[in-house]
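Dear support,

I submitted the protein below through the web form. The confirmation email said the job was done, but the results page showed an empty box. After a refresh the structure appeared. I'm attaching both so you can tell me whether what I see now is the final result or a partial one.
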Amino acid sequence: MLSNQQIKTFSLSTTRQMPKVVLVGNPNAGKSTLFNQLTGLRQKVGNFPGVTVDKKSGLCSLSPGKVVEILDLPGTYSLYPRSPEEAVVQSTLLNPRHSDYPDLVLVVADAANLRRHLLLFTQIRDLGLPCLLVLNQMDVAQKNQLEIDIQKLQQLLGCEAIGLSARRGDNLEKLKTLIGQQLDGSKNKLSLPPLVNPVFLGIEGLDMVQEHFQLPNAYQAWHFLHNYAEMEFLAPADKVFLQKVKESKPFDSVALQSKEILARYEIIDDLLGAALRQAITLARIPFEERVDAWLTHKIGGYAFFVLLLLLVFQSVFSWAAYPMELIDGAFAGLGQFLQAQLPVGAFTDLLTEGIVPGLGGILIFIPQIAILFFFIAILEDSGYMARVVFMMDRVMRPFGLHGKSVVPLISGAACAVPAIMATRTIENRKERLITLFITPLISCSARLPVYAILIALVIPDDAWGVFLVCKA
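What the results page shows now:
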């Protein structure tokens, strides 16, 4: 553990005076859990320069007197950015002058879903960056009867690998030792040719880009040509150069990305065929998979979702009626008590007919909000909300929304503030903004008294044109 004096000393030092280790991986790979395990309470949160993307960093003591800075990069599925968060990952790994350029990259992969997670790892490996493959959730893989030959896998990948469970804290000390060995060079580093060499894909002009920017390999030049428009660290003249190279050579970015990813998955399948074994059982389909098939059914899934929403909202109003009556009675009794005890006057009227009923009119909705959020928490923790997102994506797409938009929209019926905060989970900026703007249009229970007051003030209490308004 670090002493307070050590932490103070390190906080006053510059970023480059200590090794920087970055955590990279797919969303839900367990990066944040591993980050918390490595750094403990020695963390700080800020924003990456120029963007409002969370930046979590902290100190990790590898051994007495040896400390490194750990940076948790946003989750991404590949090095082709589709959101500001993913663009941060690309700019950090491709710009040697970036303040967070890593001395070592820890690529965190879900051992139970290795095929999907290895795509990002193979891309980072081919960039030529020093990296270490961390196979997280090994306990889940063992539960699924997956057997991973880590020694074989690291020989085929040309990179050190380690299996652990960040949630349980398994093998953390071994990981720290391996990080220290990678940083000081005491561990023999394996090296193999690039898994996918873009030169072999028939791309021209990569040598010009590599020579112009003094890049270590052709794969970095490949990414410069693909994404130079989004690379903020490039000078305007450099972008003009890349534009000319791209126009002078046949370069279909979308088609080439697809070609590269397909080539990588062919290699990944071969690797896993050699290093991954799964026990073959004749047991019937697991209960969880049978439930998933029913909950996500194209007809039955929506029917269950509608029935569940009806049950939730009916329960909200039925169960909340009792505490709401208690709150209403308590404030009514308080008003009567104050009116009987205080002398007649303007202050008493203000207190008993204004402040106390006003507070009661606000607090009376707390039971409904609390019960609704209780149900939403259960749905999220049980994993059902993720299935709702999967189903609702096809419904939301025609309106420019994402399947994840359903969570803020439902939460907006209780309170707009946490609902707006929930839009941060939507990766695409356009879909996030649309959801953010329409969520406040959903009326929550707390607004109904406000609407009633405004209607009473604005709409006359008599016949108005073709509209008939009943008198009180």
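Response: this is the final, complete result; the empty box was a page-load delay. The chain has three domains: 4-184, 198-278, 300-447.
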